[in-house]
Specification:
Blueprint lengths: L2 E9 L7 H15 L3 E8 L11 E3 L5 H9 L6 E5 L6 H9 L4 E6 L10 H14 L5 E4 L2 H11 L7 E3 L19 E5 L8 H9 L10 E5 L5 H10 L6 E5 L4 H4 L5 E4 L8 H8 L4 E4 L14 E4 L4 H12 L10 H7 L2 H9 L4
Parallel strand pairs: 1-2, 1-4, 2-3, 4-5, 5-6, 6-7, 8-9, 8-11, 9-10, 11-12, 12-13
Helix pairs in contact: 1-12, 2-3, 6-7, 6-10
């Protein structure tokens, strides 16, 4: 029987069951049906029911790469797949040294800075591409944006072994919006500066307070920016508008209670939150970064603006609140057809040798 190791720089949390969690679970199930033995390696994991069928090694909040090398030094694997790790590092050479016959697939989910990497870092990545790319058999980007950056970062010579496999979600678990839910907005995001939530608060501060009297913006997520967002909410006098809800494992049931999702991000690869929102028939207000334009079409299933343009975001929100703009198209059809979880799993299984 072939053995597969999947190494994920990702923390498993019972209060955050999202798109990748559902992918991991279904991918494990489908691999086992095909006769594979599957071991998973995560940055941190304390057992909970959702993952009870998976064989999991936890790095206990240290390096998941180091944890895997510890294990692979006395276990051999036919296939090694990585998610959320940095590409073209010495880690991949170490996989080869301990497990020279394994077939290695690296899936890149990592967004790039809006202004690009520094010259020093660009040179470093290009050198790493030359040194370590030979230890990776396939490079997978989760969007065309990601593939373009893999080739720009590490070298165009990787083109023949680089391809797109889009993320997907389990559309069946998302409750569909059936009513207007007037002026209720949701944000579902890590709370860090690169997600641009501070721009949303600034945009709201530009608007006439009378327009905001019946507006609700619920922000789901945790992160280092929480205190700053609380401070800005008070500074801009938005306490009656903004509520920080913390993490939730029930977003699949909550999206339908809102009219639009707002994602004012500066960095994105291919957003699962966007897929989830659209699946629930909730249009998206987001920026032009990353793979966003590969799924969101302006005025059709959402509204697009340039990252950091708070006045443009304020204008979009004002037009929605006043009724000047509104999206009535069912946004879930595209997700079912093109970005369903089963398609993502099938495409990943087809990568295996």
């Amino acid at each position: 029987m072939k053995k597969v190791a999947i190494v994920c720089n990702y923390i498993l949390k019972p209060d955050r069951i999202g798109g990748m969690d559902r992918f991991f679970k279904l991918f494990d199930e489908q691999l086992k049906k095909k006769g594979y033995i599957v071991d998973w390696f995560f940055t941190d994991y304390t057992a909970f029911d959702f993952y009870k069928e998976l064989t999991i090694y936890s790095a206990n909040n240290t390096s998941v790469e180091k944890k895997f090398i510890e294990v692979v030094s006395h276990h051999s694997y036919d296939v090694v797949i990585t998610h959320f790790t940095e590409l073209c590092t010495k880690f991949y050479k170490n996989i080869y040294l301990h497990n020279p016959d394994s077939y290695v697939i690296s899936v890149d989910h990592n967004p790039r800075p809006l202004d690009g990497f520094s010259l020093k870092k660009r040179i470093k990545k290009r050198l790493e591409g030359v040194l370590y790319s030979k230890f990776i058999h396939q490079f997978i980007g989760v969007s065309q944006y990601t593939v373009n950056h893999i080739l720009n970062d590490y070298g165009q010579f990787l083109k023949k072994k680089t391809k797109v496999v889009y993320n997907g979600i389990d559309t069946d678990v998302f409750v569909k919006r059936t009513q207007e839910n007037k002026n209720k907005f949701i944000v579902a995001s890590h709370l860090r500066p690169s997600k641009g939530i501070q721009d949303l608060l600034k945009a709201l501060s530009y608007m006439n307070p009378e327009l905001l009297e019946d507006v609700v913006v619920d922000i789901y997520g945790e992160g280092a920016s929480k205190e700053e967002l609380e401070r800005l909410t008070k500074e801009y006098k938005l306490q009656k508008v903004i509520t920080l809800k913390g993490s939730s494992s029930k977003l699949n049931e909550l999206f339908c209670n809102y009219r639009y999702m707002i994602q004012p991000t500066y960095m994105e690869c291919f957003s699962l939150s966007i897929l989830e929102s659209l699946s629930a028939n909730i249009p998206v207000i987001t920026t032009t970064v990353g793979g966003n334009l590969e799924v969101v079409e302006n005025n059709k299933n959402g509204y697009i603006y340039n990252p950091g343009d708070c006045k443009a975001l304020a204008a979009i929100l004002e037009n929605i609140i006043t009724g000047e703009n509104n999206i009535t198209e069912n946004t879930s059809d595209l997700i079912v057809q093109e970005f369903h979880l089963t398609k993502m799993v099938t495409n990943h299984i087809n990568l295996l040798p």
